[in-house]
Amino acid sequence: MTRDKLAFVAFEPTNGQFVALLSMQGLVSGQGDPELVLRKAAKVYERATMTMKSVIAEIQACRADGKLVPARKIWRLGDAIFELTSQLQELSLQIDRLYDHLVRDLGAKRKWLEKAIIFRRYLPDEALVPESLNWGRCEKGTRKAAERLRDGLPPG
């Protein structure tokens, strides 16, 4: 299977772990042992969601303490999602309904996850996000704020 033709995979939580599910089309068109690929995919997804939950816990701790959320934490969440999709692509897979999975497994709102992904998409390097920048300055108009930061300008 080529990178242009990625099979759709879904993940279901089972007994504190995830089971990867592949469509019949994905099974037929895939290369290699599908059971091995699905086990690898489930481990990739499980590690990624653990990383994302950790970042989300840090963000929630900031909010609970009445502190401003650093924009870099949101960038890290978006980067973890990018890393997940990249690792699955190496297995010739992509998640079917990515946001539905993440909302279910992270307990986060879809709109917030979309903003994290947009922020990361337009800022390919964490170093472009000033350490002192809080997320509130980027939350509204996320793409525009990210583009400005990428161009070396203040977020707006």
**Assembly state here?**
single chain
Instruction: Provide the succession of SSEs.
Output: EEHHHEHHHH
Structural class: mainly alpha
Which percent range describes the beta-strand content? 5-15%
How would you write the strand order of the largest sheet? 2-1-3
Number of strands: 3
Give the termini separation.
44 Å
How many helices?
Answer: 7
Q: What are the low-pLDDT stretches, counting only 5+ consecutive residues below 50?
A: none
Main β-sheet, in a few words? 3 strands, mixed
Shape descriptor: elongated
Rounded average pLDDT: 91
Structural notes for this entry:
This protein is mainly α and 156 residues long. It has one domain. It contains 7 helices and 3 strands. It has a 3-stranded mixed beta sheet. A hairpin with a 2-residue loop joins strand 1 and strand 2 (17-22). The relative contact order is 0.14.
Q: Summary?
A:
The chain has 156 residues and is mainly α.
Give the SSE layout.
Blueprint (H helix, E strand, L loop, with lengths): L6 E8 L2 E6 L1 H6 L4 H31 L6 H20 L2 E3 L2 H9 L3 H13 L13 H4 L2 H9 L6
Parallel strand pairs: 1-3
Antiparallel strand pairs: 1-2
Helix pairs in contact: 2-3, 3-5, 5-7
